[in-house]
Structure formats: C-alpha cells, structure tokens
C-alpha cells in the first residue's frame, strides 16, 4: 500500500505528506504542556494566592492552546491536500488503465467503478489519518507517560498497572474487529455491485421478468450486510466502556492514593490533577491508535483491490508516452499498413502480418466475419494500442511519430456502440470540433439522417441528452453518433458498423450523401454486410486476422473464393457493384 500511495503523491503533495506529521509534533508538544501548566497554577498560584502567577500561566495555557490549534489546522490542511492530490493522481491512473483494458475476463465496469471511487476514498482517508494520527497518537502516548512520570513519579505505578491491561484489551479488540470490518466492507461492495447491475440491466431484468429473482438476491445481500455490520459493531462495543472503566478506576486510585500522599505532603494537589489529565490524554491516544489500525485494515483491503486494477497495466503500452517524443504532421491521408501483427494477449494473435494501402481519397470497405479483427485495425490506426509489430503510416508518416492529438485530428471514427454523454445534442455533436457552426451541424446531421428527429425537438441542438443518451432511441443515438464523426470533416473517416441500427433504405441514402460530401476523402467502411462495402474503391477481406484478399468487388469475385462464398451466403448470387 505504501508503494501505491508514494507512487501517486508527487511534488508539493509529497512535501505536504511528510511535512504534516512534523507539524503535528508541534500540536503534541502544546497539548502536553497543558496539564503541567495547570498543576503549576494550582500549586504555585492558587494555593499561594499569587494572582499574577495565575494570570501569566493562564495566558501561557491560552497561548499553547492557540499554537496547538494553528499546528493542528496546518497539519489538517497539508494532510487533506496530500490526500486529495493522491486520490486525483490514483483515480486518473486507474481510469487510464481501465480505458486501455484488453485482458480477456478482466474486471467488469461495476467493479472498476467501485475501485476507482470507494477504494480510492478509503486510501485517501488513511492518508489523512496517517498524516495526523500516526505521529500524534504514539507521541501523545509516549509523551503523556514520560510527562506524568516527570511531573508525578509517585503516582506512575498506577499507569504501569492500567496501561498493560488496556494494551492487551485493545490488541484483543483489534484482532477481533479487523476481520469483521473487512467482511462488512465486502458485503457493502457486494450490495453496490448488485445495485449497479440492477440499474444498468433494468431493461433486461424487466424483459426476462427477473424482478423477483433480483429482489430476493438484493434482500439476501442486505441481510448479510446487516449480520456482518452487527458482528463488527459487537466486536468493538466493549471498547469505549472498558476504556472508560479503566480510566475511571485509574482516576479513583490516583485521587485516593494521591490524596493520602498529599495529606502527608509527599505530592501536591496540582501534581494529582496533572497526572489525571495525562491519563486522559494517554487513553484518548490509545483509542485513536485503534481507529488508525481499523482504518489501516480497511485501506489494505482497498489497496489490494486497487493493485489488481493497476496490475492490468502490465499488458498495456501507453500511447501518450510515445507521443511525447515527436509530433510529425501527415502529408495527405494515404493509409499504409505494412506487415502489421498484433494480439491483445501475447498468446493469441488477432492480426497476422496485414499489409495494404489506401491511396489518398479512396474508399475502402473492410469485410470479415465477427471477431475477424476489423475493429482491431481501427484501434491500431487510431493508436489505441501501440504494441503491434510492423508499420502503420498516415500521409507517409509513421503514426508513432505523431502526437495522439494529430492522429485524432486526422481520423474520426463512428463506432456501432458509441455512447452519448449527458449534456445537449450540441455538446455531443461538437466533441471533435467545439467551434462548429449551426450550419455545419445541420450539414452533418442531414447526412446522418438525424435531422428529422432533431427538428422535432423543441430546443433543437440545445435539447438535453440524458446519461448515456437514454432519452433517445437506439437508431437515433446511432445517427447522432455518426453525425458527431462527420462534424469535424477529418481527412479520414471510419464508419465501424456505424449504421447497423438503421434500415436498408436509410442506410443507402446516408451512404449516397456521404459519397457526395467525401468523394475525394479517404473513407473506411467496416461491416459484416457485403451490401455496405460493395461499391467501395477497394474491399479488404479479413479472415481470422489474416488479409484474405483485397481488390474491387469484381476482382474479388474472380480471385477470392472466400469473398465469393460471403457474397453467395449473404446475397444468394453475384450482384453488380453498380446495381
Ligand atoms: N479490448 C480488447 N481486449 C481483449 N480482446 C479484444 C479486445 N477487443 C477485441 N478483442 C478480441 O479480438 C478479436 C477481434 O475483435 P474485433 O473487434 O477486431 O473483431 P471485429 O472483426 O471487429 O468483430 P465484429 O464484426 O463482431 O465487431 C475478438 O476475438 C475479440 O474478442
């Protein structure tokens, strides 16, 4: 856990993290002065009627109180700064790892969300506690013992009896409660997961009439949480009463035995009061230590889960790191793949020595069965993953020499399942080009056949879009998603099954409008349907990650048995590309 925290505290936050405990020493020092000053006021001020002494020492008490407050405040501010910055850096790191995820069977989104939110918060709480309590508790404890021995050595044996009993008791409580709190935390996670799945899969649950099943599952998990919470609470229920009892016993003995000693003038009243106050400080430091240990146990569970997400990065190469090296601009929009091989996992190649060229301004159709590697080609072209073999060039420049922003300015992609984000229709359409005018939006939405329903929205482009675009139908979302890719008028446009939810006639109309708009612009149409790619300048046929053939429809019909088979299966014959 220390490793994760240190890895994500940089610069000023790191200074704050180490400075805060040092400042806390100041607060502890101030706190430890109070009982001694009080005892002096009693012994040398009040009992001798020396008002000046009382006032000057009361002033000193006030000064130490204010100083303590300042030290405490500064420590708290530095601690929360370090904790916030650590949380920010860790969340952003986890998000990057999650976005680049490529491991089969890796963590589902609901789990990732819990880890990025809840688990990081637990670790942040610990950083806060550590910066304050890790120094304060032991120092107050040791300081309290030392001071009480110095101020009142005659009563010190009481401490040597009470403290070991308390330490043993607290160790037992920690041992009992830590696993119970861990179990409680796991129950909370399970309920979170069920809630997320229920909310995300509401439609599926309703359509399969699974409400009762899900409800029963939820109730069982709730009962489990109730049980684990109760056991965790029971484990610590004795904490406060036993500590109070031991403290009060100590105070009674201190007052009784101290009173005897005071009568025989061995110790003073002030010393007894100081001793009792140090006992209170020592006990509160012990309670704080238990709280820190419990927080540690929770944070360790969270850190283990956060580490599991970070471990996923072992399979990733972050494109941004390579992008920082250089930023060469492309000369045109010709696309070249030269002997490109890639696998999401090393053991399983997805693309195998794929080479092809799409000359500037050409339309390329990419066809192949599901899982053939079509979208993977685009993942590599847009530099989502960089650890491929071979070379990919745009406009004659190796994409590895371009900044990510340059690649994304050159290539726009409309995916089949792109999300809309909460905001407005306009905010969704202008991601690729924030300064797009209404005329440009109208042009793009007209091509994508989104105009008919946008025109009916009272607020038109300013109409609200709810989370994940759930106030629009699947077809409407896909049209908006397509328009969003058209708005920036990039040199290269990729439609990756981007019209799958659109009927055949509308699909043909969209394509013909796109043809007019992008007659001389490089465009890639990825599809499983032959009709979608049949009229492209070239069609690339992918089969299990290998380039089966490339050519026009007519050429492929002659040269590629695999393509002929596809056409026969889908269309039942050999249609004319111009039909
Ligand atoms: N992010 C990822 N992590 C791990 N494996 C992946 C990832 N994306 C795709 N794959 C795997 O790579 C293979 C090729 O996927 P790809 O999406 O390129 O196929 P596709 O030809 O576009 O399929 P479809 O037509 O169904 O969209 C599949 O077996 C898929 O399971």
TrEMBL record:
Name listed for the protein in its UniProt record: ABC transporter ATP-binding protein
Keywords attached to this entry: ATP-binding, Membrane, Nucleotide-binding, Transmembrane, Transmembrane helix
Topology in the lipid bilayer: Multi-pass membrane protein
CDD domains membership: ABC_6TM_Tm287_like
Residue ranges annotated for the ABC transporter domain, each copy included: 335-569
Pfam families hit by this protein: ABC_membrane, ABC_tran
ABC transmembrane type-1 domain sequence ranges: 18-298
Domain of life: Bacteria
GO molecular function, one term: ATP binding
Residues passing through the membrane, by range: 54-82, 133-151, 157-178, 232-257
This protein's record includes keyword Transmembrane helix: yes
Organism field: Lactiplantibacillus pentosus (Lactobacillus pentosus)
Keyword presence, Transmembrane: yes
Subcellular location: Cell membrane
